[in-house]
């Protein structure tokens, strides 16, 4: 099945859902969570990352970037533990970058749905 991305907004809450993301989606569309002013404000975006579906040995990660080209894995909020889910679940995140995106690595036969909720 093809990857579909939907965005819902309600006030300052934004929910972006990636349906049917898998390891073949090596460059899924990113979300701009902070404009250039975030660097002046120094205020990270708080949110929740949730993944569910068929993992098939895959790992669902959340990555951040300041230039939408170079990406780094993000950690679970208030920890130094990578946000990397190998089964259905979720975790809070805090991101001081401009862009975020989900990425599925490893595994075969994976078919994962990811929801990213954050306040902007």
* N-to-C span: 31 Å
Computed CA radius of gyration, to the nearest angstrom: 14 Å
Quaternary status: single chain
- Which secondary-structure class do the elements indicate? mainly beta
Report the principal-axis shape.
globular
- Residue-averaged pLDDT: 89
Sheet of most strands: 5 strands, antiparallel
Spatial strand sequence of the major β-sheet: 1-2-10-4-8
User: What is the helical fraction, as a range of percent?
Assistant: under 10%
Strand content: over 45%
Number of helices: 1
Q: What is the element string, with H for helices and E for strands?
A: EEEHEEEEEEE
The overall strand count is 10
Low-pLDDT runs: none
SSE diagram, text form:
Blueprint: E1 4-10, E2 13-21, E3 31-32, H1 38-41, E4 45-54, E5 59-65, E6 72-73, E7 84-85, E8 89-95, E9 99-105, E10 111-119
Antiparallel strand pairs: 1-2, 2-10, 3-9, 4-8, 4-10, 5-6, 5-7, 5-9
């Amino acid at each position: 099945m093809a990857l579909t991305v939907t965005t819902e907004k309600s006030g300052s809450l934004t929910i972006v859902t990636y349906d049917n993301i898998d390891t073949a989606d090596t460059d899924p569309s990113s979300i701009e969570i902070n404009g250039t002013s975030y660097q002046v404000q120094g205020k990270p975006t708080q949110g929740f990352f949730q993944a569910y579906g068929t993992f098939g040995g895959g790992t669902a990660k959340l990555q951040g970037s300041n230039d939408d080209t170079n990406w780094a894995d993000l950690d679970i909020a208030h920890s130094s533990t990578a946000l990397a889910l190998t089964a259905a679940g979720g975790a809070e995140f805090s991101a001081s970058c401009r862009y975020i995106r989900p990425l599925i690595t490893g595994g075969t036969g994976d078919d994962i749905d990811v929801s990213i909720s954050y306040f902007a």
